[in-house]
Design a protein that fits this description.
This protein has helices at residues 14-26, 39-47, 52-55, 74-83, 101-110, 122-138; strands spanning 5-10, 33-36, 60-65, 92-96, 114-117. The chain is of the alpha/beta class.
Length: 145
């Protein structure tokens, strides 16, 4: 990935967040990674009164967003990011255990760029994250605001 891209992991399960970070690095992703454990923290980072994002026009972001999180869930975060002019171009990849077709449809309707279902099997989960890392290496991310 380009050096000026930061990966945001929005995941309330610390174990899943650690596996995602570790296996992205194993896939060759060396970009900075920020971890937020709930949707409220993500929205504060991007849209809050003291948002570094709104002050910084050098770094691009990609968000790996869990669906089921405390305080503000992933659907609300996705909806807010995609309906706000300053954040609507930020790529959002849903990465969640939820395989409900209705929720997948809602996320795509709201503008998620991809939807990945986390496998329950540990080895399959690791493999999915490695593949995600390879995917992140080849996609183009829009320039910041």
């Amino acid at each position: 990935m380009k050096k000026n891209i930061t990966i945001i992991i929005a995941e309330d399960d610390e174990g899943h967040a650690l596996l995602i970070k570790r296996n992205l690095k194993r896939a060759g992703v060396v970009n900075p990674i920020l971890h937020f454990s709930n949707g409220e923290e993500v929205l504060e980072f991007f849209l809050g009164e003291n948002s570094d994002y709104l002050k910084n026009n050098v770094t691009s972001y990609i968000v790996l967003l869990d669906l089921k999180m405390p305080k503000v869930d992933g659907i609300e975060v996705l909806e807010k990011l995609k309906s706000t002019p300053s954040t609507k171009k930020i790529p959002v990849i849903m990465i969640t255990t939820t395989d409900n077709p209705r929720e997948i449809d809602i996320c795509h309707t709201l503008g998620c760029n991809s939807y990945i279902v986390k496998p329950i099997d540990y080895q399959k989960f690791i493999e999915i994250v490695k593949r995600l890392g390879y995917y992140l290496e080849i996609i183009e991310i829009p320039n910041p605001i």
